[in-house]
Amino acid sequence: MPSRVSPGIVNVTDFVAAHAKKFGSYINYIDRDEAIRIDHFDQQNILSVDGYNHYMENPKKSSGIFTDQYDHLTPTQRVQLKKQFTVAQKHQSVMWQSVFSFRNDFLAENNVYNPKTKQLDEAKLRDATRVAMNDFTGKMGMTHSAIWSAAIHRNTDNIHIHVAIVEPQPTREWKRVTVEGRHGETYQEWQRKGYVPKKILNHFKAAFANEMVDRDRSLARISDLIRQRLQPDQR
Fold first, then answer.
1. Is 202 left (phi over 0), alpha (psi -120 to 50) or beta?
2. Pairing label, strands 174-180, 159-166
3. What does the pLDDT look like over 202-233, one tens digit per residue?
4. Fewer CB under 10 Å: which end of the chain, C or N?
5. Domain with 65 in it
Protein backbone atom coordinates (compact mmCIF):
# COMPACT_ATOMS: atom_id res chain seq x y z
CA MET A 1 0.00 0.00 0.00
CA PRO A 2 2.58 2.60 -1.08
CA SER A 3 1.81 6.29 -1.12
CA ARG A 4 3.80 9.51 -1.31
CA VAL A 5 2.76 12.11 1.27
CA SER A 6 5.59 14.51 0.59
CA PRO A 7 8.32 14.82 -2.06
CA GLY A 8 10.76 14.01 0.73
CA ILE A 9 8.96 11.13 2.47
CA VAL A 10 7.75 7.77 1.17
CA ASN A 11 5.72 5.36 3.28
CA VAL A 12 4.84 1.72 2.66
CA THR A 13 2.64 -0.38 4.95
CA ASP A 14 1.62 -4.04 4.74
CA PHE A 15 0.70 -6.95 7.01
CA VAL A 16 1.07 -10.71 7.43
CA ALA A 17 -0.93 -13.33 9.30
CA ALA A 18 0.32 -14.93 12.51
CA HIS A 19 1.54 -18.11 10.81
CA ALA A 20 3.74 -16.24 8.31
CA LYS A 21 7.41 -17.16 8.46
CA LYS A 22 8.51 -13.51 8.65
CA PHE A 23 6.34 -12.95 11.71
CA GLY A 24 8.35 -15.60 13.52
CA SER A 25 11.63 -14.28 12.13
CA TYR A 26 10.93 -10.83 13.50
CA ILE A 27 10.23 -12.28 16.94
CA ASN A 28 13.40 -14.36 16.89
CA TYR A 29 15.61 -11.33 16.34
CA ILE A 30 13.97 -8.83 18.71
CA ASP A 31 16.34 -9.63 21.56
CA ARG A 32 19.41 -10.36 19.43
CA ASP A 33 22.47 -8.17 19.01
CA GLU A 34 21.80 -5.28 16.65
CA ALA A 35 24.48 -6.41 14.20
CA ILE A 36 22.78 -9.82 13.95
CA ARG A 37 19.39 -8.19 13.47
CA ILE A 38 20.74 -6.10 10.61
CA ASP A 39 22.53 -9.03 8.97
CA HIS A 40 19.21 -10.93 8.94
CA PHE A 41 17.06 -7.95 8.04
CA ASP A 42 15.70 -9.55 4.88
CA GLN A 43 14.28 -12.40 6.97
CA GLN A 44 12.24 -9.93 9.06
CA ASN A 45 11.10 -7.52 6.35
CA ILE A 46 7.68 -8.35 4.86
CA LEU A 47 7.89 -5.43 2.41
CA SER A 48 10.41 -7.02 0.06
CA VAL A 49 8.01 -7.26 -2.91
CA ASP A 50 6.30 -3.89 -2.64
CA GLY A 51 8.27 -2.02 -5.30
CA TYR A 52 10.16 0.01 -2.71
CA ASN A 53 12.69 -2.67 -1.89
CA HIS A 54 15.62 -0.32 -2.50
CA TYR A 55 14.54 1.71 0.52
CA MET A 56 15.04 -1.28 2.77
CA GLU A 57 18.17 -2.98 1.49
CA ASN A 58 21.23 -3.63 3.61
CA PRO A 59 20.98 -1.06 6.39
CA LYS A 60 24.56 -0.40 7.50
CA LYS A 61 23.78 1.11 10.86
CA SER A 62 20.96 1.13 13.38
CA SER A 63 20.69 2.74 16.80
CA GLY A 64 18.55 -0.14 18.02
CA ILE A 65 14.92 -0.72 18.85
CA PHE A 66 12.73 1.97 20.35
CA THR A 67 9.07 1.94 21.41
CA ASP A 68 6.33 4.34 22.46
CA GLN A 69 7.92 4.62 25.93
CA TYR A 70 11.65 4.00 25.51
CA ASP A 71 14.30 5.49 23.24
CA HIS A 72 16.64 2.55 23.80
CA LEU A 73 15.70 -0.85 25.20
CA THR A 74 17.74 -2.65 27.82
CA PRO A 75 18.36 -6.38 27.30
CA THR A 76 15.59 -7.12 29.82
CA GLN A 77 13.15 -4.82 28.02
CA ARG A 78 13.94 -6.50 24.71
CA VAL A 79 13.18 -9.89 26.23
CA GLN A 80 9.85 -8.54 27.50
CA LEU A 81 9.06 -7.09 24.08
CA LYS A 82 9.82 -10.43 22.48
CA LYS A 83 7.41 -12.13 24.89
CA GLN A 84 4.64 -9.70 23.95
CA PHE A 85 5.16 -10.34 20.23
CA THR A 86 5.19 -14.09 20.92
CA VAL A 87 1.88 -13.83 22.78
CA ALA A 88 0.45 -11.83 19.87
CA GLN A 89 1.47 -14.53 17.42
CA LYS A 90 0.06 -17.27 19.66
CA HIS A 91 -3.25 -15.42 19.76
CA GLN A 92 -3.29 -15.14 15.95
CA SER A 93 -2.64 -11.40 15.75
CA VAL A 94 -1.82 -9.76 12.48
CA MET A 95 1.63 -8.15 12.26
CA TRP A 96 1.71 -4.85 10.40
CA GLN A 97 4.98 -3.44 9.16
CA SER A 98 5.52 0.11 7.95
CA VAL A 99 8.56 1.93 6.65
CA PHE A 100 9.12 5.66 6.36
CA SER A 101 11.94 6.51 3.97
CA PHE A 102 13.42 9.96 3.37
CA ARG A 103 15.35 11.95 0.85
CA ASN A 104 18.43 13.28 2.57
CA ASP A 105 17.91 16.79 1.21
CA PHE A 106 14.42 16.84 2.77
CA LEU A 107 15.91 15.89 6.15
CA ALA A 108 18.58 18.57 5.72
CA GLU A 109 16.02 21.24 4.86
CA ASN A 110 14.15 20.43 8.06
CA ASN A 111 17.26 20.41 10.26
CA VAL A 112 17.11 16.67 10.90
CA TYR A 113 20.23 15.63 9.00
CA ASN A 114 23.56 17.32 8.29
CA PRO A 115 24.97 15.85 5.05
CA LYS A 116 28.44 17.22 5.80
CA THR A 117 28.86 15.84 9.30
CA LYS A 118 26.41 12.92 8.82
CA GLN A 119 24.75 13.90 12.09
CA LEU A 120 21.13 12.76 12.38
CA ASP A 121 18.54 14.08 14.84
CA GLU A 122 17.22 10.67 15.84
CA ALA A 123 15.14 12.18 18.65
CA LYS A 124 13.04 14.06 16.11
CA LEU A 125 12.54 10.91 14.05
CA ARG A 126 11.46 8.99 17.15
CA ASP A 127 9.05 11.76 18.09
CA ALA A 128 7.52 11.77 14.60
CA THR A 129 7.16 7.98 14.72
CA ARG A 130 5.36 8.16 18.06
CA VAL A 131 2.98 10.85 16.84
CA ALA A 132 2.20 8.83 13.71
CA MET A 133 1.75 5.59 15.65
CA ASN A 134 -0.59 7.29 18.11
CA ASP A 135 -2.66 8.44 15.13
CA PHE A 136 -2.57 5.00 13.48
CA THR A 137 -3.54 2.95 16.54
CA GLY A 138 -6.22 5.46 17.49
CA LYS A 139 -7.92 5.44 14.11
CA MET A 140 -7.62 1.64 13.90
CA GLY A 141 -9.31 1.32 17.31
CA MET A 142 -6.19 -0.28 18.79
CA THR A 143 -5.06 2.40 21.26
CA HIS A 144 -5.28 0.00 24.19
CA SER A 145 -4.51 -3.26 22.39
CA ALA A 146 -1.55 -2.60 20.07
CA ILE A 147 2.15 -2.56 20.84
CA TRP A 148 4.89 -1.61 18.43
CA SER A 149 8.63 -1.47 18.04
CA ALA A 150 10.72 0.53 15.60
CA ALA A 151 14.30 1.07 14.50
CA ILE A 152 16.04 3.84 12.60
CA HIS A 153 18.21 2.44 9.83
CA ARG A 154 20.73 4.75 8.29
CA ASN A 155 23.50 4.87 5.74
CA THR A 156 24.93 7.52 3.44
CA ASP A 157 22.41 6.78 0.66
CA ASN A 158 19.18 6.46 2.53
CA ILE A 159 17.66 6.83 6.00
CA HIS A 160 14.48 5.04 6.97
CA ILE A 161 12.42 3.91 9.95
CA HIS A 162 11.02 0.42 10.16
CA VAL A 163 8.00 -0.20 12.44
CA ALA A 164 6.28 -3.45 13.46
CA ILE A 165 2.85 -3.50 15.17
CA VAL A 166 0.95 -6.37 16.81
CA GLU A 167 -1.92 -6.96 19.24
CA PRO A 168 -1.14 -9.36 22.12
CA GLN A 169 -4.90 -9.54 22.64
CA PRO A 170 -6.23 -9.22 19.08
CA THR A 171 -9.29 -7.13 18.28
CA ARG A 172 -9.41 -7.65 14.52
CA GLU A 173 -12.32 -9.63 13.06
CA TRP A 174 -11.84 -13.01 11.43
CA LYS A 175 -12.27 -13.61 7.71
CA ARG A 176 -12.03 -16.65 5.47
CA VAL A 177 -9.24 -16.45 2.90
CA THR A 178 -7.86 -18.61 0.12
CA VAL A 179 -4.31 -19.78 0.78
CA GLU A 180 -1.85 -21.42 -1.60
CA GLY A 181 0.01 -24.45 -0.26
CA ARG A 182 3.58 -25.55 -0.82
CA HIS A 183 2.73 -27.57 -3.90
CA GLY A 184 0.46 -25.01 -5.56
CA GLU A 185 -2.76 -26.35 -4.07
CA THR A 186 -5.27 -23.90 -2.60
CA TYR A 187 -7.42 -24.18 0.50
CA GLN A 188 -9.56 -22.02 2.75
CA GLU A 189 -8.58 -20.88 6.24
CA TRP A 190 -9.55 -18.28 8.80
CA GLN A 191 -7.29 -15.29 9.41
CA ARG A 192 -7.73 -12.02 11.23
CA LYS A 193 -8.26 -8.97 9.06
CA GLY A 194 -5.22 -6.79 8.55
CA TYR A 195 -6.40 -4.42 5.84
CA VAL A 196 -5.84 -0.73 6.62
CA PRO A 197 -8.28 1.70 4.95
CA LYS A 198 -6.64 4.22 2.65
CA LYS A 199 -8.07 7.12 4.67
CA ILE A 200 -6.33 5.86 7.82
CA LEU A 201 -3.05 5.37 5.94
CA ASN A 202 -3.25 8.92 4.62
CA HIS A 203 -3.78 10.29 8.14
CA PHE A 204 -0.94 8.09 9.41
CA LYS A 205 1.50 9.42 6.84
CA ALA A 206 0.34 13.02 7.21
CA ALA A 207 0.78 12.86 10.99
CA PHE A 208 4.37 11.77 10.51
CA ALA A 209 5.11 14.36 7.84
CA ASN A 210 3.57 17.21 9.84
CA GLU A 211 5.68 16.35 12.86
CA MET A 212 8.80 16.22 10.69
CA VAL A 213 8.41 19.66 9.15
CA ASP A 214 10.55 22.33 10.76
CA ARG A 215 7.79 24.50 12.22
CA ASP A 216 10.16 27.33 13.18
CA ARG A 217 11.41 27.55 9.61
CA SER A 218 7.89 27.45 8.20
CA LEU A 219 6.60 30.09 10.62
CA ALA A 220 9.54 32.34 9.83
CA ARG A 221 8.75 32.09 6.12
CA ILE A 222 5.08 32.95 6.76
CA SER A 223 6.10 35.91 8.94
CA ASP A 224 8.37 37.23 6.19
CA LEU A 225 5.54 37.04 3.66
CA ILE A 226 3.18 38.85 6.02
CA ARG A 227 5.69 41.61 6.66
CA GLN A 228 6.28 42.05 2.93
CA ARG A 229 2.56 42.38 2.27
CA LEU A 230 2.05 44.87 5.11
CA GLN A 231 4.88 47.17 4.10
CA PRO A 232 3.60 50.50 2.73
CA ASP A 233 4.08 51.20 -0.95
CA GLN A 234 7.31 53.23 -1.23
CA ARG A 235 6.72 54.34 -4.79
1. alpha
2. unpaired
3. 999 999 999 988 655 544 454 555 555 555 55
4. C
5. 3-170+199-230
